[in-house]
Amino acid sequence: MSRKTVTGAEQLCATLEALGTTHVFGLPGTQNVLLYDALRRSRIRSILPTSELAASFMANGYYRASGRIAPLVTIQGPGFTYALTGLAEARDDSVALLHLVGKPPAGASTFAFQALDQEAIASPIVKAVRSVDRAEDVAAAVEDAHALALAGEPGPVMLQLAGEAMAEPCDSGKPAPRSPPADLAPPELQEAAHLLQASRRPLLLVGQGCAASARGVRALAEALRAPVLTSTSGRGIVPEDHPLALGLDFARSSAGAVNPIFEACDCILVLGCRLGAGLSEGLVLSEGRLIHVDASREVLGARHRARCAVHARVEDALPVLLQAALRRSDPGGEGWSSDSLAGWKARLAKDTSGAFPEPVVSGIDGRTPAALFGALRRALPRDAILVTDSGLHQVLARRHFPVLSPRGLMVPSDFQSMGFAIPAALGAKLAAPERTVVAVVGDGGMAMSGLELLTSVRERIPVVVLVLADGQLNRIRLQQFGEFGRASSVRLVNPSFEDLASAIGARYALLGRDAEPAFKDAIRAEETTLIEVELGDSAAIRRLRGRGFVRQAARKGLGPAALTRLKRLLRRTR
Predict the structure, then answer these.
(1) How far apart are CA 85 and CA 215, in angstroms?
(2) Is 64 helix (H, G, I), strand (E, B) or coil?
(3) Distance between CA 94 and CA 313 in Å, rounded?
(4) Which of 328, 369, 504, 527 could form a disulfide with 396 if both were Cys (CB 3.0 to 4.6 A apart)?
């Protein structure tokens, strides 16, 4: 029986389908019309965003909500360059992303149309760049790139597709079945188990690598009766209303407040967390107490040396570690008491040593960000996903919004790209349609990505978007206030958000005193909804500005009398 002949583009789609792909994000162009025609005839849903940058953030949100890959599709040249920020974000967020991009023609002259050395440009920010030049190699290339994106430390992989490879015929075929990953038990895992079994006051520090193993992590923490700290992207793996969850986030707590907990424990078990600068800067993690388990060999020892480093997936290590935890004894009650755990949790919750001053939230009862995010939390299901952009609103959300489920908080973690929240929220909703998804943006992020609401309405992807409007790039403004007492180049002019929502076809609400009912109405509507939240300056922000002005004046050498008068003026504003 002869095999069916298909084009390389059709073979690519068939391979993606066999790998479980249900969505792709991208824009069609002259160079990839064959691929998009093949997608039209496949079972894969193609989502058209406003730009390749938005498409890359959608792919990011899709993976982080599900652990599955939805490829990014762009043309070469400008499509490729628009997506670069999203590739860098995926690298820093440990996001598996497959970028399918046109391959520039070989031997192009210096001034050839849209000719770039894409491999040289992308290589520093992706795990690998692969190319396919023949249709018969398409299936194997897609399989390998897909597997590489997921292997070890997840990250972006770029696959360049030559036009000839998409057009020419080849024999159809499904990918060869892949063997499941071996259930490896490296010798270091037994050592880790022995150390854990012998511990009296262990502590867990968990990251995004535990998202698929949340039940196992919670069972381990309960068996050990160990407090749990998390990276930002690991929040919710143990629900933050659980007695063992200490709720660490450096938007709220400082390293100075956390280090005494590490000093009080005798074993620090780090699971699926690479201990990047955003998390571990300033933390004192004693090598003699540290056990580090991670699927990426490159992560182990990169920033903190461990007494025992275990190269294994968290899901493979957990059964062995749980058995060790169940064999533990606690003679004399040397472990963590309920009172001590409650005390540590309260101490972290009260720590504001590294906090920015907070704005006033107009209209709502309480007029504070804590009241705003408290009302949002009460309105949302436990498994809701909150997605933020980069800015002051992210700091406020991380400080005041309890995360109660795995993958329940999504921020641009280490690269901090603006324009992230709305497209990432759309990707998350497509990946997890049963979960409520809310995006929180500042008006700066809204200016960059607000028209992605067009995609939300057109593609019928119901998300709720909160825009915290203060007319400023306020995170930077507050930094300028603290340094100089004045701000520059941060003022914004906002459109009428009500008119914008009407023009797009979205629902609109201006948040008033009854915040919780307004949130519940938006959730029940299951439509694209834009909620405007007005912010203003608080007394704390005005004091910050005054102190910065005094600091700048002192730098410029004002005399003691002038400085004294300035300080008196400051005291009057308190």
Answers:
(1) 34
(2) helix
(3) 14
(4) 369
